[in-house]
Write a structure and sequence with these properties.
Strand content: 15-25%
Strand order of the largest sheet: 7-1-2-6-3-5-4-8-9
Low-confidence stretches: none
Shape: globular
Number of helices: 6
Helix content: 25-40%
Mean pLDDT: 89
Radius of gyration: 15 Å
Order of helices and strands: HEEHEHHEEHEHEEE
Largest sheet: 9 strands, mixed
C-alpha cells in the first residue's frame, strides 16, 4: 500500500476505493464539490441523496458541524460499534454532501487505517458503499463490481480478503432524542 499515493489522489480531487471500519467505500475529499460529484456519477446516484462523511475525532467533527449536541457526544463516547450520526447545520463541507434538510451524516471510524488517512489528509473523507446505487452492498473486495473498480481513480491495496457483514448504525439527533435510522 502506498500511503502517499492515496493522499495525493485525495489532494488532487480524485476518488479512492478503500476499506473502512464497516464496508468497502468510495471516497474523496468531502470539501471538494467536483470530487463529490464524481462519486455520485460512479454510483449513478442522485445528488439529492446525501453521503456519509468520515472524520478522525470529535475536534474535527466540531469543524464541520455548527453545534454538536451533548447527546451526540454521549453516544460517541459509549458506542462500541460503528455509528454514524446525522447532524443539523453542517459547515465547511462541499454543498453536494449535505442533505436537502441541511443535515449531514458523519462517523468517526474505529479503524487505524481510516483514522491515519483522515489525520494525515487533514480533512474529512466521503465514505459511501462501493456499489451502484440500488445494488447490494459488497461484503468483501471480491464482491465489488468491475464497473466500480474501473471508475475510481485509485484502489487501496489493503484487507482484500476481509468480509464485513454490516454497515454502520445510523442515528439522527433531534433535540434531546435519538432516532434510529438504520440498526
Amino acid at each position: 500500500m502506498n500511503f502517499n499515493k492515496i493522499l495525493n489522489t485525495l489532494k488532487q480531487g480524485k476518488t479512492i476505493l478503500y476499506p473502512t471500519d464497516t464496508v468497502w467505500g468510495i471516497g474523496c475529499d468531502a470539501t471538494n464539490e467536483v470530487a463529490v460529484k464524481k462519486i455520485y456519477k460512479i454510483k449513478k446516484r442522485e445528488e439529492s441523496k446525501s453521503l456519509i462523511i468520515l472524520v478522525s475525532s470529535i475536534e474535527m467533527l466540531k469543524e464541520y458541524v455548527k453545534v454538536v449536541p451533548q447527546i451526540a457526544l454521549d453516544v460517541l463516547e459509549n458506542t462500541t460499534k460503528p455509528t454514524t450520526i446525522i447532524y443539523h447545520s453542517p459547515k465547511n463541507l462541499a454543498k453536494n454532501t449535505i442533505a436537502s434538510d441541511n443535515t449531514i451524516a458523519i462517523r468517526i471510524p474505529k479503524n487505524d487505517f481510516c483514522l491515519q488517512l483522515i489525520k494525515e489528509f487533514g480533512k474529512p473523507i466521503v465514505s459511501t458503499s462501493a456499489n451502484i446505487s440500488g445494488a447490494s452492498t459488497p461484503k468483501s473486495f471480491i464482491d465489488i463490481s468491475k464497473s466500480i473498480l474501473k471508475s475510481v481513480d485509485y484502489v487501496v491495496d489493503l484487507q482484500e480478503d476481509n468480509t464485513t457483514e454490516k454497515s454502520s448504525t445510523i442515528l439522527k439527533i433531534d433535540g434531546d432524542s435519538v432516532i434510529v435510522i438504520r440498526e
